[in-house]
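User: Hi! Is it possible to get a structure for several chains at once, not just one? Here's what I have:
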Amino acid sequence: MARMKFLCDADRCIECNACVTACKNENEVPWGINRRRVVTINDGKPGERSISMACMHCTDAPCAAVCPVDCFYVTVDKVVLHSKDLCIGCGYCFYACPFGAPQYPKVGNFGSRGKMDKCTFCAGGPEADLSPAEFQKYGSNRLAEGKLPLCAEMCSTKSLLAGDGDIIAKIYKERVVKRGYGSGAWGWKTAYKETVAI
Amino acid sequence: MSEKKTKQALDRRGFLKVASLGSAAAAASVAPGLVTPAQAYNPGNEETKARYRETDHVKAYYRTNSY
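Assistant: Yes, the chains can be modeled jointly so their relative placement is included. Here is the combined structure:
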């Protein structure tokens, strides 16, 4: 069974932010929320690297572990999704997430932030596939359409990879072997610990 | 005057005592069968089913990313 993963090839990312824009447009993400962001480290210095970051759909997701209302669930594809009907906007998942993925539509304290929003791997939510209710709450469901997340599909430098973890890992390995260097699959050790059984 | 005040205070305390006893009795009288334990969200098979398919579209993505 395929296990969905993201992989950002930091040696190819040019910080164009097109993945961020594409995600916002495709999912009609509300103001104040960016499901995906590009993080640049060592900006302007030798060894500068940019990494496109969103929910990594962790194997043993810390957000799900701390949620007081248990609104998270994992699909057979190992995509971590949540129910906005149950979310109380407490913000615990934001503190637990090592990638800063959960976002809130409003600035506020406990309970006044609104429902949490995060990357769905373009897989919608608990509502019926491709229904208007699903789109309104969670954005598009490209996986149900037989496609992959738009951020990865439209990456101009093919830096952002998404899909079956085994296949994208093979693609990345081939790239590293061919060019002779690679800065590693950033976040994979944190998100997809090999010691944790799927 | 002071006697009246004391009487009023006693009356008030008496009311509070009765009220607290009443609420405790109401809490105790809830039938155990009506109390349902909190349950975690349990999505059905439809919500968690595999949506990923290796379509021609997805195959083309893998092929074009392999260089």
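Residues 90 and 109 of chain A are 8 Å apart (CA to CA). The mean pLDDT of chain A is 93.

User: Great, thank you!
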